[in-house]
Design brief:
The complex is a heterodimer. Chain A is an alpha/beta fold. Chain A has twelve helices and 15 strands. In chain A, β14 and β15 form a beta hairpin. Chain B has a domain of about 90 residues: Dna Topoisomerase Vi A Subunit, Chain: A, domain 2 (3-Layer(aba) Sandwich). Classes of the chains: A alpha/beta, B alpha/beta. The structure holds adenosine-5'-diphosphate (ADP), magnesium ion and zinc ion (ZN). Magnesium ion binds next to α1 of chain A.
Chain lengths: ~375, ~200
């Protein structure tokens, strides 16, 4: 049995003042009416195990209204016993995750597996990975690689900062506040960091593609799914392209070449799903990408990440619901929220832990851990 | 905001101008001073005055000194053919404590950062280039901070002395010594890997 989450305590997290939830390996179904805190619970698990929320860039929203801090504590079961991890957060202050009481060396390191178990989550808003702008797809890719390689996380953050510096310099040159003396220097720095980002992304896309093809094949049908990384400039000509863009970049005051402008296309049977996919195809492709991400983490670490899928059943037909239920049952751990438990067959629920959210204390009603 | 007697308010205001001291800390320090002994408070005031009156930048390397030139520049045992360029004077202390370096220093006064409007002219880069020419320096060790601005500054310095007969080196960003590899922070370890060398 590989790592999974045994227990989570949420203090001042969203609508939870102080609640503890116990979880089982295998499938956990979070059931409750709307607006009672199902999504919040899944978000809290993610926060506890990665040190940040995947749901919003405005992190202070997770702190319970009228409170000035929140805290999550998690017990993770590992092969050689357990690990207690905690994340305390007071908006405006540095977050301090701890592992067995010892402060993690950094949040970046904590996010890259410091808790002992990684997560793959699916929130309804994730549809934008396929449906939305290139930035949404880049974010997905960067988060996935960063969860595995802290050095990549650092390079990507430094790259973003170097591009900001270069953009500011371009504007200062255009407006006559700076000479061009340091532009070559910033170009070098940008390229050095950008190359690390490019290499990381290209390798990840290559690795993800067969996983995606398998997942989407199972979810959708025999048409072949493909991923294509599309460059503003490929590695070999990146430095040169950036140099050639200087004049135009100065005029516009922004950097037009580099991985911050790249995209990757998700296609099915040769058709780009972002532009031409139906709503249903886009939804299934997003799910398939998440499954591919799970396979990727498993390939890279030898460990299964846990799956946190929010309200994923409601938009699917029965056949796909059954496929998903089986998929979740067979995973090391999956936490799935739904308003309607009937989306799962009784035999499936019998082999799962059902966590009821009623606005009051969280109750765990049934049948814990058939696999425990 | 609580209101105190005017001199107390003034002290709190002055203290909160200091780096990494917020209004709450400023208040705590102010009341600590008020409660404490008079000699201690006057000692602090005198120390502040003295440091502003007597300390100035070394005319050669811009380290802090009471004299025209700092102790390091005046020390005949130091190797004048090597200059270590740092961002701030307090970086010199860190390097000196290693006991490994016997050359001279050059304080740049910060790092290039278009976002903060910091240009080469705001740093003592021209002075460094001039020193290399006049002093016949053979090596510049750039020891700026290992972040984007520090590294860009290092690259810029290398570019500025390209045509001079001087070697430019940078510190290896290595592992903390004396600790187990297991406990090294992953980013540092990742960098150390990227910078691995032939044995
Ligand atoms: N920071 C917060 N503090 C307190 N309550 C919050 C906070 N953020 C969201 N909520 C509440 O949480 C509820 C939504 O919970 P959510 O988990 O999204 O519901 P659902 O069960 O439908 O997934 C809403 O009633 C909202 O008012
Ligand atoms: Mg919800
Ligand atoms: Zn000096």
């Amino acid at each position: 049995m590989t790592a999974y989450l045994q227990a989570l305590r949420m203090i001042n997290f969203r609508n939870y003042a102080d609640e503890t939830v116990l979880l089982s390996p295998g499938l956990n179904v979070v059931v409750g009416e709307n607006a009672l805190g199902k999504t919040n619970l899944l978000e809290a698990i993610s926060f506890a195990l990665t040190g940040s929320t995947p749901r919003t860039p405005k992190e202070n929203e997770v702190v319970r209204w009228d409170q000035d801090f929140c805290r999550t504590e998690a017990r993770v079961a590992l092969e050689d016993g357990g690990r207690k991890v905690a994340v305390g957060y007071a908006p405006g202050q540095k977050k301090r995750p701890t592992v067995d009481g010892v402060p993690a060396t950094s949040l970046t390191n904590y996010a890259a597996g410091g808790a002992g178990v990684r997560v793959i989550n699916f929130f309804p808003d994730d549809l934008r990975i396929v449906k939305g702008a290139p930035a949404d797809r880049r974010e997905f890719l960067d988060a996935l690689i960063s969860a595995l390689r802290p050095a990549y996380a650092r390079a990507a953050a430094d790259y973003a900062r170097a591009v900001q510096q270069r953009n500011q310099l371009l504007r200062r040159i255009r407006d006559g506040f700076s000479s061009e003396r340091t532009l070559a220097t910033w170009d070098r720095k940008v390229v050095e960091l950008g190359e690390t980002v490019l290499k990381g992304r290209v390798a990840a896309v290559e690795r993800l593609e067969p996983f995606l093809a398998d997942s989407l094949g199972a979810l959708y049908g025999p048409e072949k799914a493909a991923l294509r990384y599309s460059y503003s400039a490929p590695l070999e000509t990146y430095a040169e392209a950036l140099r050639e863009a200087r004049g135009a970049d100065i005029e516009r005051g922004t950097t037009s070449v580099g991985p911050h402008r790249d995209n990757f296309e998700v296609s099915l049977g040769g058709v780009d799903l972002t532009t031409y996919g139906s709503q249903g195809q886009q939804r299934l492709a997003t799910l398939a990408l998440k499954f591919a991400a799970r396979d990727y983490v498993r390939w890279a670490t030898g460990e299964d990440p846990i799956l946190l899928f929010d309200d994923v059943m409601s938009e699917l037909d029965e056949q796909r619901r059954e496929y998903l239920a089986d998929y979740f049952l067979q995973s090391v751990q999956a936490v799935i929220s739904t308003t309607n438990p009937e989306y799962f067959r009784p035999e499936v629920l019998q082999r799962s832990r059902v966590i009821r959210i009623s606005g009051g204390p969280v109750t765990v009603s049934t049948m814990a851990g058939a696999r425990g | 905001m609580a209101t105190y007697a005017r001199p107390v308010e003034r002290l709190i205001t002055e203290l909160s101008k200091l780096p990494s001291i917020g209004p709450k800390s400023a208040q705590r320090i102010a009341f600590h001073v008020i409660r404490g002994r008079q000699e201690d408070a006057f000692g602090l005031a005198e120390a502040l005055r003295e440091v502003k009156e007597r300390i100035r930048p070394c005319r050669r390397c811009f380290n802090l000194t009471e004299a025209e030139e700092c102790e390091i520049c005046r020390d005949p045992r130091r190797d004048p053919s090597v200059i270590c360029a740092v961002e701030d004077p307090y970086d010199i202390g860190s390097i000196e404590r290693t006991g490994e370096y016997r050359g001279l220093y050059h304080v740049l006064g910060g790092a290039l950062s278009p976002l903060d409007g910091i240009e080469p002219e705001d740093l003592r880069i021209a002075e460094l280039v001039e020193r290399v020419k006049v002093e016949g320096t053979q090596e510049i060790v750039v020891a700026t901070n290992p972040n984007t601005t520090g590294e860009a500054t290092a690259l810029f310095i290398a570019q500025e002395v390209e045509d001079l007969p001087v070697r430019v080196t940078a510190l290896a960003s290595g592992l903390p010594v004396g600790g187990d590899l297991e406990y090294a922070d992953e980013v540092t370890l990742g960098r150390a890997f990227a910078g691995r060398r032939e044995l």
